[in-house]
Amino acid sequence: MTEASALHAGWSELENKPEHAIGFLLKSIQHTLRQTLDEAMRKQGVELSFAQFVALFGLSCEPGITGAQLARRAMVSAQTMNSALHRLEVDGLIARRPHPHSRRADSWSLTDEGLAQFARARDVGREIFTRMLAPLAPLEIANLDNYLRRCIGALEMLSRPSAPAPDAPDATKRVNGRIPAH
Fold this sequence. Notes:
By secondary structure, the chain is mainly alpha-helical. The chain folds into two domains: 1-43; 48-134, Winged helix-like DNA-binding domain superfamily/Winged helix DNA-binding domain (Arc Repressor Mutant, subunit A, Orthogonal Bundle). The protein has seven helices and two strands, in the order αααααββαα. A two-stranded antiparallel ribbon has the order 1-2. Helix 1 (3-14) runs antiparallel to helix 2 (18-43) and helix 4 crosses helix 5 (78-90). The protein is globular and about 55 Å long. It starts with a helix and ends in a 24-residue tail after the last helix.
């Protein structure tokens, strides 16, 4: 039994309500996916950290992006991304240029060697994602994608206190802090 599945089993005994375990399960899958991806890349001779892989992915999608933008998209700290970018630059996988619109920022792009290394890493990642989703039917995968996107949207709404929650009753219909019964 893996560490993650042992922890999951322990939590399942404590909380029999799925809504109480969802956050833990999301963190567990993120952690397990990252460990599995790191291990698979090492076995295939792809010497990239998760942050470096994410940086290469971001640069393949948006050549010329800044390090700060990459960090936000990758959901890592600016410090983590700066460290990853520095290592990738030293290894010759990315190139730095002055950003055309900001004197304080650098613009990053993949080198030919970086493109080749990213292609290898992406192939390893595809195998892991395919294996992870193998127990699910195509409709279940589409539903999972939809559910996760909706959860993200709901959490993003929480960070904007002036916006009503999705599908929440209209706040203008409240009387004395309560929604009148119909």
